[in-house]
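TA notes. Do not distribute before section.
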Amino acid sequence: MMKKDLTLYTGSPLSRLFKLDRFGDFTAEFDKLWKNWDLDMRMFSDMQPKVSFPKVNVTETDEEYVVEIALAGFKTEDISLELKDNCLCVKADSAEESSEEDRKYLMKEISSRSFRRVLNFPTKVLPDNIKCDHDNGIVRCVLLKDLPKQIESNTIKIDIK
């Protein structure tokens, strides 16, 4: 048996006696590289702007889409909704952002920053009959689908003579 065969793992008696490792400092260098990469990625993500969109629920039936948007802290006049190219564009600009700068928060999870959000629908939506209301911080929109009109079937029996 050769010396090299006994040092296949770091726990072998010869590797401890001669302080030999099959891979040398490769594993230590890899660990150091991995820790530095992890640190760099955390620093990079901390530098990114924190984007917070409001929570949205979108449900679908055969006839309509129902969109619910959680907009606590926004007044109805601060919210703008548009239907453009079969997409619902939601915008909210809070007029009270500047007054919150003098507050000292111990915890702040409710965002009242301005935002823009676009929701795309897979089926064509009728622009004429959209119903929206704002109640208890929830904006609820009902958008009817543009269903293909079915041609009434007038079946006529044809006799063969």
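Switch to the second chain here.
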Amino acid sequence: MDILGVIKGRRSIRKFEKRSVPPESLEKLVEAAIWAPSSHSSEPCEFIVTATPGGVAELARLSHAKFIEGAPVIITLVVRTDTGSKSPIMDGSAAAMNLLLEAHALGLGCCWISAHPWETKLRHALNIPDDCRVIGSFAVGFPAESPLGARRTSPQEATHEERYRREHV
């Protein structure tokens, strides 16, 4: 599948089959994420994989996204702020997108869950140190739903030549 096909086919999945994700698939997700570009090649990303039913249930209890209780795996992505990166949030966001795309390419479903408003609880539960920023958590599993594609803005509608030209309201 070409990369544009993977990008267009990816959807946020919130319902998962009751089967485990193979360890080699989880390793591929992390590998895809760490191959994202990073400022000054700082590679600030680290991953906390929660794959036990008790661990997933605890995160679901703490989270605003209750659907994650149905996911077999939750991957939390953090970026260290002591690696020399000038833009760790951008680095982490690039890694997150790679993770989402690899999940889709592997036939897995995935949904990015914002760290807000549960970041303090998440930090405590996962022992995340103060020198790390939380990019988000990702519910991962085999999809039990097939959301329809959404309409997207056309490239022509989103592109400005030379200067920004949208009429201000």
